[in-house]
Write a structure and sequence with these properties.
Layout lengths: L29 H20 L4 H6 L3 H4 L3 H5 L5 H17 L4 H29 L9 H9 L14 H19 L5 H21 L2 H7 L4 H16 L3 H22 L8 H19 L10 H30 L4 H37 L1
Helix pairs in contact: 1-5, 1-14, 5-8, 5-11, 5-13, 6-8, 6-14, 6-15, 9-11, 9-12, 11-12, 11-13, 12-13, 14-15
């Protein structure tokens, strides 16, 4: 007779502040908003000063010649994506608790699409004005980009950063079907984390394309780590969630060091591993309540700007750099500063006049459909 599988242990007793009761707004973790903007600025500096390609034409030379000191740090800014994924695991677990599958779907659509559609329109317009920076796409390609499914369909991307959205969408789909649909509980999240981690390891060993497409072994450790850290935040310290976090951190360091330190610009694998460690540690500090003192109101604004800023900063930033530096002759450092501030200002407008009014309206429309 086969041995019965032992049950998962009961959730640990909560050792920190209890979560808000159902129906009441959850207290906002303002430090998490600040971390999101830090991750976005890391990616921004990578795109402006840490890589070659189109931005080199905007600067008229490779950024490592324009910013010889900054570029040595900016080359690691691409790890802001991994930082985002850890935060995303935490936030998705938090925001899905007590919600139905329909609520989860509507909240994700209302959160992702309004700013995304505006970013597509802005960058497509820029491609018409200055195609040397952004190559314009055909109408059918633009329409497919509106769906956010351009990458699996092999359609040229309007937004360079949207490959990360395709990763996020697959994470949402897995979590929605396996955890949100039956109902989010401590045990289901633990089981999901455990099974996904094992599937990621096995898919890496097998090397199957389909398995990698669904399981995403290169990114799973970051999402799983974020999910487990939310369990720590909600239920307190426990050996099981911290064990999942530790394993995710180890696998995350391995995938980041293997995939990043030897590609493109040279990167030190130990610096890569250090930055992955800092990403996990920063979200762990939020989970443990060590950042509750960070209650500055401007952090809410920082969090609100992150998503639209992330969407528009790359191609539009290259456009602005080309105009300010090449056309108007502005020196590199003022150009860099004005470009970042300009993208933050535009993100503020998108949040105020697009996300704030259209997000709730889209959610209501979907609910009544």
């Amino acid at each position: 007779m086969a041995l019965a599988s032992p049950p998962l242990p009961s959730p640990p007793a909560r050792t920190t502040t209890a979560p808000a009761p159902p129906g009441r707004p959850r207290p906002r973790l303002l430090a998490l908003d600040g971390l999101r903007l830090v991750a976005a600025l890391m990616v921004c500096l990578y795109h402006y000063a840490g890589r070659g390609g189109v931005v080199s034409a905007s600067w008229q030379q490779n950024p490592d010649h324009v910013f010889p000191t900054l570029s040595r740090a900016a080359v690691y800014g691409c790890l802001g994506v991994q930082f985002f994924f850890v935060i995303s695991g935490f936030v998705i677990c938090m925001s899905s608790w007590g919600r139905s599958l329909g609520d989860f779907f509507r909240s994700r659509v209302a959160r992702l699409y309004p700013a995304y559609w505006v970013a597509l329109a802005l960058i497509t317009g820029a491609s018409v004005v200055l195609p040397a920076v952004v190559h314009p796409v055909r109408l059918d390609e633009f329409l497919v980009n509106l769906t956010m499914l351009q990458q699996p369909l092999g359609v040229p991307r309007v937004l360079g950063v949207c490959w990360t959205l395709w990763v996020e969408v697959r994470f949402y789909a897995l979590f929605a079907l396996l955890v949100v649909l039956p109902g989010v509980t401590y045990r289901r999240v633990v089981l999901f984390c455990s099974v996904w981690t094992m599937a990621a390891v096995l898919s890496t060993a097998a090397g199957g394309t389909w398995a990698e497409l669904v399981v995403m072994p290169a990114y799973a450790p970051y999402f799983v780590g974020g999910l487990a850290l939310y369990l720590v935040h909600r239920f307190g310290n426990g050996l099981l969630p911290w064990g999942i976090v530790a394993l995710s951190w180890i696998l995350g360091m391995r995938t980041a060091a293997q995939g990043l330190w030897h590609t493109g610009s040279p990167r030190d694998p130990y610096v890569v591993m250090l930055l992955v460690t800092l990403a996990f540690a920063a979200v762990a500090a939020v989970a443990a309540g060590w950042t509750n003192w960070a209650a500055w109101p401007w952090l809410t604004t920082a969090g609100a700007l992150t998503y639209p800023f992330y969407l528009i900063h790359e191609h539009l930033g290259w456009f602005v750099i080309r105009v300010l530096h090449r056309a108007w002759g502005l020196p590199p450092w003022p150009t860099l500063a004005l470009t970042v501030l300009g993208m933050l200002g535009l993100a503020r407008l998108i949040h105020r006049y697009v996300e704030t009014p259209l997000g709730p309206r889209l959610k209501r429309t979907l609910k009544n459909a």
